[in-house]
Design goal:
five-stranded mixed β-sheet; 193 residues; alpha/beta
Length: 193
């Protein structure tokens, strides 16, 4: 019924931070998804080679898509599914093991955004915050596979809820977002815990 893709959409800072994200994908409670490593053309090729070496290919199927175009992969390879789920994630963050399973279980055969609660860790003051704001960087888009595919990278994550109905799923935090100088757009949005 549906194809599920995780789009790694932001600048990748180090192999070490990105490999922590990839390890969180390997620990997912379901494995029926594809990973799209979507970065710009200036990313050095040896970076990919080092990163891919850290990935358990028996657990996670992946494709490298240049120029931040995850929809190219989706349109070209998942055309037999009536619905597609794409989820947006940053390379230096991590997902809880049931993230993808929760998203898939909340599939209702309608176009909508699914948002999850998460934690933000501030690398400057080392506090942790609970993020319950809609339009998180970990938003997932369910869309029909008819016409032009948009993917969860269609608009900046906070603006996605202007274009699609959005609802929260899951009862516990399902991601950890690491706030640092390189991702200033993702300011602290939660309550300190």
């Amino acid at each position: 019924k549906l194809g599920t893709c995780i789009s790694l959409y932001e600048d990748v800072f180090t192999v070490d931070s990105a490999s922590k994200f990839l390890k969180s994908l390997e620990k997912q409670t379901v494995n029926n998804f594809s990973l799209i490593l979507s970065v710009d053309a200036e990313t050095p090729e040896n970076f990919f080679n080092d990163l891919i070496k850290t990935l358990d290919k028996s657990t996670v199927r992946y494709v490298i898509e240049l120029n931040n175009q995850p929809k190219v992969y989706v349109q070209n390879r998942i055309n037999e599914k009536p619905f597609i789920i794409t989820s947006r994630c940053d390379s230096d963050d991590t997902l809880e093991p049931e993230f993808i399973e929760v998203i898939q279980k909340n599939f209702n055969q309608v176009e909508e955004c699914l948002d999850t609660r998460g934690l933000q860790h501030d690398g400057k003051d080392y506090y942790t915050y609970q993020r319950d704001e809609p339009g998180s960087p970990f938003i997932s888009l369910i869309e029909t596979n008819q016409g032009e595919i948009k993917t969860a990278s269609f608009k900046q994550h906070a603006k996605m809820i202007r274009y699609f109905f959005s609802r929260f799923v899951g009862s516990k935090p399902l991601f950890v977002q690491h706030i640092h100088g390189g991702n200033i757009i993702n300011s602290i949005k939660g309550e300190k815990i």
